[in-house]
Design goal:
Elements lengths: L1 E6 L5 H9 L3 H5 L5 E6 L3 H10 L3 E3 L2 E6 L23 E7 L15 H33 L3 H18 L11 H8 L9 E6 L16 H4 L4 E6 L1 H8 L3 H11 L5 H12 L2 E6 L4 E8 L4 H8 L1 H5 L1 E8 H7 L2 H7 L3 E3 L9 E7 L2
Parallel strand pairs: 1-4, 1-5, 3-9, 5-6, 6-7
Antiparallel strand pairs: 2-4, 8-9, 10-11, 10-12
Helix pairs in contact: 4-5
Length: 357
């Protein structure tokens, strides 16, 4: 699954992409095509398991980020939005500029993150509206030729969506049943995607919460949205320091955690992902699955042979394993359970799959 990072020019989106994935922001900024990179998902549970088992290798879960080319601004006479690559993303990080700079002008003349967010959301809604209208026109022609219950259901669903979009509301705020959700996924609507709003503040504002401004209240209560702040300049400086120096620097500034870790964590959550762990002397590893995944499918994430030859899953909650200190101790206590194919794997569980092929 993939998260697209987008924003207006000079917002800091490419800097954020580089910091998240370890890629050179200067190189990425010089290219006009979409750049894709992988970020490691920080998880203290994996660190604790690695300390317990002392494996040869520790492998965190990962998440893919795509740096979508900069958004043209129609107010400067440039072409309008063209976001086909963003449609393939499963969630979106929208980077908003909240810092002032005499060296780098804001493309719209002044710094106003709320205005920019409204502008981007409006464009998402407009793009989706155009997709719906084109599809409805085609459905109308097809239904004139023949009556088709499936096409009629699609038409009714899209008419419902069109009413929402014409009212200036994003589709992510609506509730659809499962068949409708499945149908809508095929349209890759922009305003239906979960969205993380990341406000890029100046170094002097890093300890302040920009979302206390009353203007944000109408946004922070909406479903399908998450909000965080970061300072690209500060995060770049922290990336150059080792662990102890970085921690001391953060303490001096009164910063409790890295913004990059929050952004990765929120993106992971917006995608509906959870982690389960496999442990042993060779490797401790975190695996990403969608919440609600059954054991048989979780096994397939590791290897198709494990899924094909699935016998059972040995499962123990992370907290229980940490308290007892060993899998053998959990087995003796009776907290290591045997589960079948249809068992729903929960976040943080340590799982060992028994299989035979």
């Amino acid at each position: 699954m993939e998260v697209g990072i987008m924003g207006l020019a000079a917002s800091g989106k490419t800097s954020l992409f580089g910091l998240l994935t370890g890629q050179d922001p200067a190189l990425a900024a010089s290219r006009r095509d979409t750049q894709v990179g992988v970020a490691k998902v920080p998880d203290p549970r994996l660190d604790a398991l690695a300390a317990m088992f002392r494996p040869k290798k520790t492998t965190p879960a990962t998440i893919r980020f795509a740096d979508i080319p900069g958004i043209p601004d129609e107010h400067r006479g440039e072409p309008g939005f063209n976001l086909p690559e963003l449609r393939t993303a499963d969630a979106v990080v929208v980077v908003l500029r909240a810092f002032s700079s005499d060296a780098v002008a804001h493309p719209r003349g002044s710094v106003d993150p709320l205005r920019d967010l409204e502008h981007i959301e409006e464009e998402f809604i407009l793009q989706d509206q155009m997709v719906v209208e084109r599809r409805l026109e085609r459905l109308a022609r097809d239904l004139q030729k023949r009556r088709d219950p499936e096409l009629e259901r699609e038409r009714d669903l899209l008419v419902q969506c069109l009413a929402v979009l014409e009212d200036g509301r994003p589709l992510r705020g609506e509730t659809f049943d499962r068949p409708a959700e499945k149908k809508l996924r095929g349209f890759t609507f922009l305003s239906l995607k979960p969205m993380l709003v990341a406000v890029n503040v100046g170094e002097s504002e890093i300890a302040e919460d920009p979302f206390v401004d009353p203007g944000w209240a109408a946004w922070t209560s909406r479903p399908g949205l998450a909000f965080t702040r970061f300072c690209a300049t500060l995060e770049s400086e922290l990336a150059e320091l080792d662990g102890d120096d970085a921690r001391a620097f953060m303490d001096d500034l009164g910063i409790a955690d890295r913004a990059l870790e929050r952004i990765i964590g929120e993106s992971y959550r917006l995608l509906g992902l959870i982690s389960f762990f496999t442990v042993g002397e060779d490797e401790c590893r975190a695996w990403s699955i969608l919440a609600g995944t059954e054991a048989i499918d979780a096994a397939g994430v590791i290897h198709s042979d494990i899924q094909r030859g699935f016998i059972r899953a040995e499962v123990v909650p992370y907290d229980e394993l940490l308290e007892v200190g060993s899998l053998a101790g959990c087995r003796q206590r009776g907290t290591l359970r045997l589960e079948g194919k249809t068992y729903t794997v929960a976040d943080g569980e340590v799982v060992h799959f028994r299989f035979n092929v």
